[in-house]
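This section describes the prediction task in plain terms. A model, or a person checking by hand, is given the sequence of a single protein chain and must write out its three-dimensional structure as a string of tokens. No templates, partner chains or ligands are provided. The sample shown here is typical of the held-out split.
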Amino acid sequence: MKRVWYFIAAISLLPLGTAWVTDSVTLEGERTIYTAECEGGDWSTDPVPTCSGTLVAGERFRFRALRAHSEVLFWTVGDHHRPSGKFSGCTITDSRNWSCPGNEQAGDTITLQMKGGSPQPDPSGRTRRFHVVEKWRWIMLRGFAPAASHTPATKP
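The expected answer:
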């Protein structure tokens, strides 16, 4: 009888685990972007971003869209040396779709605009360069052996 209950518990937790790994369920108004770095090599962009070295877990950037205030708060998860920042005067549809004018804090983060939950590169170069990876892949890079060389990252 215990086996049946274990099976039922496992089947019940499967959707929750999937939602967590894919970030389909997040705190209201928040979005976390997972990045990768190319250790011991360079990024090429033809035809997709590819690391010529070893792909390693990069920083995690979190954004909280405050629609009522037309503000987006941002910070680097786990980095206590880099302060959090704020963009004001933003156009916010929801946590996955917003755009902000830049300010002096733009260089502390990776984007001024989110479309469909994906950060958009700043063509003016005011923000930091980045290479996005999926959450599950970031977890693998962070917790297990680094990926092999020549591993493509997700295009931002």
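For orientation: DSSP finds two helices and eleven strands in the chain.
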